[in-house]
Amino acid sequence: MGTLFGVKKKEYFSVKNIKEETFSVKKTEELGEMTCSGCKNEYSKALLKAKLFICPNCGKHLTVSARDRVRQLADKGTFKEQNANMISGNPLKFPGYRTKLKELKETTGKRDAIITGEGNINGQRAEIVVLDSTFMMGSMGTVVGEKLTLAVEYAMKNTLPLVIVSASGGARMQEGLFSLMQMAKTSAAIEKFSENGGFYISVLTNPTTGGVSASFAMLGDVILAEPDALIGFAGPRVIEQTINEKLPEGFQKSEFQEEHGFVDKVVHRSELKEVIGKLLYVHKKIK
Ligand SMILES: [Zn+2]
Fold first, then answer.
1. Domain ranges of the chain
2. Domain 64-282, CATH 3.90.226.10 — does that match?
3. Rounded to an integer, what distance in angstroms lies between the CA atom of residue 21 and that of residue 101?
4. Which residues keep their CB under 5 angstroms from ion ligand 1?
């Protein structure tokens, strides 16, 4: 029985890899249960997907994959993905890294922790970038850095506003220095975009930490955040251990960061699309 299942599973994934956007991939994503990290209630993924991955019981904003985030934000049928097939090499020959990437591609259909493309948000055209915390913690390696930079350059060339939704633990350990270099690369691209009069909305979701929070995520003209998201460079535990002091309640949460001026507005996920759409409309360039 186990062997038969194994064979079927292998066949299934080999078919799935041919095309990412097939019905079967969507079905896989909907299979299974998900436990709310807030109230510990269990829900089917299909139900949570319909509820924008907001817990129906406690209202906690649960993890959203990049593909689901694009579905939530972009108007139906408007999103055109770019550079979908880019995959990472193993520049440092880090042991096991290539195998890990291959396994993730086979089991999730994802090639890396980012999706980029052009689409409409509430009728407003924009270049959209979404990080995926379900793929190696959304860590920024060379593919994330390169795809994000290409997206910023595309937005600049086509006079499009830029919307980046961050969800990342920071740099990708397996790519070492190459990963850290992406901070400078993406920040420089944003700077150039900004100098050329580009408008950039940064959306911080849980978690936005490490090298991502220390580069492009904090460079938005407008910085929005989802409720109760962890936003900061080092995690609270590391800071507490370093300074040997207890941190204040809610430290590094979106609401705390809003109060202290790092975030312009905390926006509930159910209102995010509308708020972004309105901001894009207000900042629309008159040609
Ligand atoms: Zn809950």
1. 64-282
2. yes
3. 19
4. 36, 38-39, 55, 57-58, 60
